[in-house]
Design a protein that fits this description.
Elements: H1 7-13, E1 30-32, E2 42-44, E3 49-51, E4 63-64, E5 74-76, E6 81-82, E7 87-89, E8 128-130, E9 135-136, E10 141-142, E11 147-148, E12 153-154, E13 159-160, E14 168-171, E15 176-180, H2 184-193, H3 200-205, H4 207-211, H5 215-220
Parallel strand pairs: 2-5, 3-6, 4-7, 5-8, 6-9, 7-10, 8-11, 9-12, 10-13, 12-14
Antiparallel strand pairs: 1-3, 14-15
The protein binds coenzyme A.
């Protein structure tokens, strides 16, 4: 019997499987992140990767102050590129701000329990939500509750304390708009296309268009 393309070959023709822990042969520092997540309050979409020479398993160490009793989630979309030591400060980091002291007496117990704030007294900012096709640079720091729109770029070592618009480039401390990647008209069209929701075969057929800058061709893609 003639041998046709096996399962592995077929898979390779449409890029790596999003279920691979190490999608790059011979380069284990890159991990498809969703396969490394152990916490129920971290949700990561297909193909989003974390790149760390010390191993992709380090990602969760950089999701800081993430306590189950608070219940906040870190939600990351598909096809994001996350550089080494990008860090996410979650809501558990924030002490009560409205008292005469911010010192958290209550956490120590032993008679100091009455100083424990109710959850609603904490300055909770909600879930941290990163869109699709977001590139987060080396050692960026993302604050609780920040929403980063699809297609955004966060420059290396930025401190992101405010929401980030889709297809914007932000940088610095505090991170500010450096520039928009495209015109508003083009951004609206990209957000309508949502190429990241295409199946792997369609993405493969349209790779050249995706990495070029021809939005008309992307809209015609089939
Ligand atoms: C965001 C980034 C992609 C911008 O690249 P670029 O468009 O070529 O930007 P430029 O170098 O032309 O700089 C544009 C402006 O942004 C500023 N800028 C760039 N990077 C910055 C940063 N990390 N923090 C603050 N400002 C920054 C520049 O000073 C410049 O400001 P100006 O217009 O006032 O002169 C790049 O600076 C960056 O941070 N890349 C991340 C790389 C990384 O972490 N890779 C990890 C492996 S994936």
């Amino acid at each position: 019997m003639r041998s046709g393309p096996g399962r592995a070959n077929l898979r390779r023709m449409h890029g790596p499987s999003p279920d691979e822990k190490h999608p790059m042969a011979g380069f284990p520092q890159v991990g498809f992140l969703k396969n490394w997540i152990t916490r129920p309050n971290i949700v990561v979409g297909d193909y989003t990767y974390y790149d760390d020479p010390e191993g992709p398993e380090r990602f969760e160490q950089n999701v800081l102050y993430h306590y189950p009793f608070i219940g906040d989630r870190l939600v990351i979309g598909k096809f994001c590129a996350i550089a080494k030591d990008a860090r996410f400060i979650m809501n558990g980091a924030n002490h009560k701000l409205t008292g005469l002291t911010t010192y958290p007496f209550g956490i120590f117990g032993e008679g100091w329990e009455p100083a424990r704030p109710a959850l609603e007294e904490l300055p909770l900012k909600g879930d941290t939500v990163i869109g699709n096709d977001v590139w987060i640079g080396y050692e960026a720091l993302i604050f609780p509750g920040v929403k980063i729109g699809d297609g955004a770029i966060v420059a290396a070592r930025s401190v992101v304390a405010r929401h980030v618009r889709p297809y914007s480039v932000v940088g610095g401390n505090p991170a500010e708009l450096l520039r928009m990647r495209f015109s508003q008209e083009k951004i609206a069209r990209l957000l309508a296309i949502r190429w990241w929701d295409w199946d792997a075969a369609k993405i493969t057929r349209n790779l050249k268009t995706l990495v070029a800058a021809d939005i008309d061709a992307l809209e015609r893609a089939d």
